[in-house]
Amino acid sequence: MPALLPPIVEFREATKRFGEGPLVLDLLNLTVQPGEFVSLIGPSGCGKSTLLRLIAGLTPLTAGSLIVDRRSPDAAAADLAFVFQEPTLLPWLSVAANIELPLSLRGVAPAERSVTRRRVLDLVRLSEKANAYPRQLSGGQKMRVSIARALALSPKILLLDEPFGALDEMTREHLNEELLTIRERHAWTAFFVTHSVAEAVFLSNRICIFSANPGHLYTEIPVPFPYPRTEATRRSRPFHDLVADVSRILRSVEPDTV
Amino acid sequence: MPALLPPIVEFREATKRFGEGPLVLDLLNLTVQPGEFVSLIGPSGCGKSTLLRLIAGLTPLTAGSLIVDRRSPDAAAADLAFVFQEPTLLPWLSVAANIELPLSLRGVAPAERSVTRRRVLDLVRLSEKANAYPRQLSGGQKMRVSIARALALSPKILLLDEPFGALDEMTREHLNEELLTIRERHAWTAFFVTHSVAEAVFLSNRICIFSANPGHLYTEIPVPFPYPRTEATRRSRPFHDLVADVSRILRSVEPDTV
Amino acid sequence: MSRRLQTIFFPAATGALVIAAWYTIHALLSEDLRFLLPTPTAVMTAFRTHADSLTRAALNTTQGALLGFALAVTVSSFLALALSLSRLVRIGLYPYLMILQMTPVIVFAPMLVVWVGAGLKSVTIITFLICFFPLVVNTTQGLISTDRNLVELFAMWRTSRLQQVLYLRVPAALPYFFTGLRIAATLAPIGALVGDYTAGSSAGDGGGLGFQAIIYSSQAKYAALFATAATTCILGFIFTAGVLSLSWLVLHKWHDSYETTDK
Amino acid sequence: MSRRLQTIFFPAATGALVIAAWYTIHALLSEDLRFLLPTPTAVMTAFRTHADSLTRAALNTTQGALLGFALAVTVSSFLALALSLSRLVRIGLYPYLMILQMTPVIVFAPMLVVWVGAGLKSVTIITFLICFFPLVVNTTQGLISTDRNLVELFAMWRTSRLQQVLYLRVPAALPYFFTGLRIAATLAPIGALVGDYTAGSSAGDGGGLGFQAIIYSSQAKYAALFATAATTCILGFIFTAGVLSLSWLVLHKWHDSYETTDK
Amino acid sequence: TAPAKISVQLDWVPEPEHGGLYQALARGFFREEGLDVTLLPGGPGAQVMPSVATGKVDIAQADSTATLLQQAEGLPFVQFVAVFQDDPSGILVHADSPVRTFADLNGQTIIARPGWPFLKFLVEKYHLKINEVPQNFSVAAFLGNKQALQQGYFIAEPHHITQAGGKPPRFLSTWDAGFRAYAVLITNKRFARERPAELRAFTRAYLRGWQDYLEGDPTPAHTALKKAHAPNTDAFLAFSRQAIIAEKLVTGRDVRSGPKNIGRLEAARYAEQIAQLEALGLLAKGKLNPATAFTAEFLP
Ligand SMILES: Nc1ncnc2c1ncn2[C@@H]1O[C@H](COP(=O)(O)OP(=O)(O)OP(=O)(O)O)[C@@H](O)[C@H]1O
Ligand SMILES: Nc1ncnc2c1ncn2[C@@H]1O[C@H](COP(=O)(O)OP(=O)(O)OP(=O)(O)O)[C@@H](O)[C@H]1O
Ligand SMILES: [Mg+2]
Ligand SMILES: [Mg+2]
């Protein structure tokens, strides 16, 4: 891990609540280096999505500090992509247009746009739906379009909120591997919310386990396996052990907090 | 399985396409007895949601026949509940009101309604959010409200479209067990879409594996474990073997069909 | 600045600009055109001079405006329900509603005056005719724009058509309905005014604001004419304030047009 | 019955009912009231007798209606954009837009006639004044009702305010915009008619439909008056047909107010 | 026996052109004839003609031209007494306008109620080309434009114009152009048929009212007029009454002018007006004749 670089994301004593509501995130301290792949895992409602929204600058901190790419979250993040928990497609645009829109907003030329679009649609295996409208897609297909749209941006920081929750295992594994492959080329930093421990272990070099009420970072677990990881990694003994460990910790966190 | 009763759901040579689009479901034959718990599993876009929508009478068959509870799908189904793939809450009602609405539409008395509401909210562990509005909930919380709403109806047929996809493992297992517990009291028939093979095996007495393009029923696998199933079932050898088997079949179906 | 303060400050600031512009234009006008645009001071004076007749007229017009508005809201809600229930009703009825809206008041006025008599009843009907169309169009559009997923949810529950309308389509249509209501609230006083000068009656208490407007206009009392117009506007503001408050009450908790305070 | 056939059949059926009712009412009226409600036959005859003047007047009014409508659409779109951009602009400007809508034409008309002269320009401005408010209100409401999730998506992309408006808020507001457009399309011909009889001009070809209406009314030519009203309605239908087609083109593929054919 | 009820619809808000009615009412002339008369103030939307045609009111004030045109459409009116021997609607001209004669109107813009027959008459008679702009009860457009010409009521508008700071305008009158319309009271034919005695009594009291208003003390009428319509000022009422007297509107401009002439209607003048309207194409030829248009049988 390149420890000399300044951290790309740094929470310090960060606290978040909505209006007068209860604490959602309590005293969060988290430092992430450029190029890290961090998985966030924890019970429903513990503040994972909120954490991503904080990094994205979509909602302000209540107390404490947050620095993203050496700036405040608002100022940063031209180079940020977010795959929301819900697909969030524009209903009036076809799949192709949905994917190309952020590119054209950034002034990417039409020819380049359509190359990129074809590449990412291929990647999520939806090429034949390019001309469909969102309301003609299945749940998983919508989510894949949303993922494709984020990948098309080649961002510096990628925020993924349960992107693969609605996908079958095969597609999921396929996309896991694709994600790692792309990452070899663009060394982006990823924040990845998932409920699958195996997925978290396979993808990330650090797993943050959250507990709820109020949401806080219970523990961080480094994942030592070297990249590139492959099908072989997935079948290895240490992999299974780590998955078991993490699952155990997670279970110990949850029962009385859910 | 009570073979003497007439089937509660019966597809015969059923075919479905949307408008002029490609075939979505091809020549489906499927017979389900009252009280069965059927899991549907298959790649994204293979027609699982569509199949549930057909049973619910939300979309018509293109060819073939479908009988639900001895009637056409339109005519049946006062006793049907559907947990959609997306939460589908009414944004203008609080969580409590969202859950009580279908009950009050059926003329259930207020006192009884609030008892039921409390019971199901407890079940999905969201009691403290009773007065929140949907837009104040996390993704998983919304889904749990949607599940609670369906359970509150004590339906004869329960259609569940990836209800637990957005939930963490603990909550998921908790709800799995709750589902089976409730089922002991009300012997409803369940159609359950999931991408988790383990979940499918744990819950159902039959697993239907679908392949895509066009979606069709690739194979059915009976699950022989007796109910009630418990944590012990989950840890048993035969359970693990069956999960492995099903996963293998699923993998053999998918690669070139996604 | 607090939100409450802003709500007063910004309209007031614009108001100051408008009044400044008004004085400027007045000053720039050639002498013999100035009478067309009496100064705000002159209008204020006219307000005081004609306070009695303006108050009487305003009360008179308010009645017609309120009744016509209430009638429009009621009738249009039922019509919109009917229209939203079926495409066939929609294509069958819509053209005739348009006719009602488009037929010039000058055609209706003699019939109204002869049948229901000049005065409040006629004014109410004309106000109604002027207000109801935006309400019908907006409410209908709201009722047919319901999120398809929610419609399927209700279809699942096998609710009656009526239940679907009451518990789903009506609440979902509220943002559209309130938009229509806001238009209608602005149209009601002006509708009553038009009604007043086409089928009003000066019998009894001297007619409403429309009547006054014509009289002042025919007597070239421009300051008083502006004061009459201002009175109409004040009526409209009161109506609109009512509608906006109601809209806030009903929508702010859940509709995306209102920001949450809990950011 | 095919959809196309239905679209003709149902309005026609309602039309037949209306005409039957019309004849019945006419027959039920006491002799001395009948002149107020000429029979459809009489109106048809009047159409033929006055074909020339009606055509001329209709062409005249169409110009004003079209120009005023176009102006209203343009101005209201820009205004709605400005209003949607900030709550402060909204609370600062909205009351003054209301004033514009609520000030009786009788106050503006003399100024218009003096400043821009009677005729097409004034008619256009009056049509504009009558049409623009429903457009502003609807379009603004549409622009501020954008789905919050999509707004966050754009916030993520750090788009400029302008891009957010153009690529997100504007398309999302289209259903509201078209609702406003439908109201304005109905108001345009009647607005031009009102404009015509308050600030029109007979220059050249003898005035528009508003002139005709007053003349026929003052001469008790009720059948001709009805024919004039019918002409206005026809104009409105043409406008509305245009708006509905455009709305269908733009919305049917994705908006929930249009059913999918692929069920 | 209880006094017979009669309702009269005025054509505009109560003003001195209704002086005869108000004086007769205030002085009790109607009561003396055994009548209980109600005067209904008019206004922009009074719908005078339909109200008489349908019998909603018994009597109304109107001008003979409009009445003739509507009679031709089959509306059951009968004109039975003159208000003014000449309709005081004419064209207002700025004091310093170059327009002095009817012929000077050529090429001008005139603000008038659309379809004003007198204008059409002028156009034909003097071979004019003019542009017509609608008049809406307002003198603003006239005041605001030094070139403007406007249809106006001779006994009212000049006062409002001077009050608003304008110079007293000049006036091109209908009678100077040879367009001799009356201001009249009309009634429904059925009413005339069924209640001739009351109509005769009404006419008697009405004529007495006019004579008393013009020759005697107008205070009773003026008090009533101010009460009926608050904006009436003493100055306006005096101005208007004076104009009526000066132009001999009630008593008649011709040789026979005088109190005896009040209310009189003449077949010859109707014949002339019908002929004029026919020539203008406003009346179908032969559709009306003086006998169907008016009756003198209720005049004393
Ligand atoms: N309204 C529609 N119009 C056209 N095509 C549709 C429509 N709804 C679904 N489809 C298509 O039908 C196919 C099956 O969709 P369905 O939603 O049943 O898939 P699914 O098995 O539920 O997938 P997922 O696991 O992604 O939810 C998909 O290819 C989808 O694109
Ligand atoms: N706008 C809001 N207003 C009030 N409370 C909110 C709002 N958004 C989220 N919350 C609350 O904050 C808490 C954390 O929400 P968040 O969406 O971050 O959870 P999460 O960890 O993503 O859960 P899930 O796994 O279910 O998606 C929840 O209890 C939720 O109810
Ligand atoms: Mg979340
Ligand atoms: Mg699905």
Quickly list its features:
heteropentamer, C: about 260 residues, mainly alpha, MetI-like fold, 10 helices, E: about 300 residues, five-stranded mixed β-sheet, 10 strands, binds adenosine-5'-triphosphate, binds magnesium ion
Which SSEs are present, and which pair or pack?
The complex is a heteropentamer, with two copies of chain A (258 residues), two copies of chain C (263 residues) and one copy of chain E (300 residues).
Chain A (H helix, E strand, L loop, with lengths): L8 E9 L5 E10 L4 E5 L6 H8 L7 E6 L11 E4 L11 H11 L4 H14 L15 H14 L4 E5 L7 H17 L3 E5 L3 H7 L2 E6 L4 E7 L8 H5 L1 H17 L5
Parallel strand pairs in A: 3-7, 3-8, 5-6, 6-7
Antiparallel strand pairs in A: 1-2, 1-4, 8-9
Helix pairs in contact in A: 2-3, 2-4, 3-4, 6-8
Chain C lengths: L2 H26 L11 H10 L1 H35 L1 H16 L2 H11 L4 H25 L3 H9 L4 H39 L9 H10 L3 H30 L12
Helix pairs in contact in C: 2-10, 3-4, 3-6, 3-8, 3-9, 4-6, 6-8, 8-9, 8-10, 9-10
Chain E lengths: L3 E6 L9 H8 L2 H4 L2 E6 L7 H6 L5 E5 H9 L4 E8 L4 E5 L15 E4 L4 H10 L4 E4 L5 H5 L4 E5 L3 H7 L6 E4 H4 L5 E6 H6 L1 H20 L3 H10 L5 H13 L20 H13 L10 H4 L7
Parallel strand pairs in E: 1-2, 1-3, 6-7, 6-8
Antiparallel strand pairs in E: 3-10, 4-10, 5-8, 5-9
Bound molecules: adenosine-5'-triphosphate (ATP) (2 copies) and magnesium ion (2 copies).
The site of one magnesium ion (MG) has 4 residues of chain A, from helix 1.
Describe the structure.
The complex is a heteropentamer, with two copies of chain A (258 residues), two copies of chain C (263 residues) and one copy of chain E (300 residues). Chain A has helices at residues 48-55, 95-105, 110-123, 139-152, 169-185, 197-203, 231-235, 237-253; strands at residues 9-17, 23-32, 37-41, 63-68, 80-83, 157-161, 189-193, 206-211, 216-222. Chain A is of the alpha/beta class and 258 residues long. The longest helix of chain A is centred in the last third of the chain and has 17 residues, at 169-185. Chain A is globular. Chain C has 263 residues and is mostly helical. Chain C has a single domain, classed as MetI-like (MetI-like fold). In chain E, 40% of the residues lie in helices and 18% in strands. Chain E has 14 helices and ten strands. Chain E is globular and about 60 Å long. Chain E has 300 residues and is α/β, with parallel strands linked by helices. The B-C interface holds B 53, 56-58, 77-78, 80-82, 84, 86, 88, 90-92, 101-102, 105, 133-136 and C 149-150, 152-153, 155-159, 163, 167-168, 171-172, 174, 253-255, 260, 262. One adenosine-5'-triphosphate sits between chains B (18, 21, 24, 44-50, 85) and A (136-141).
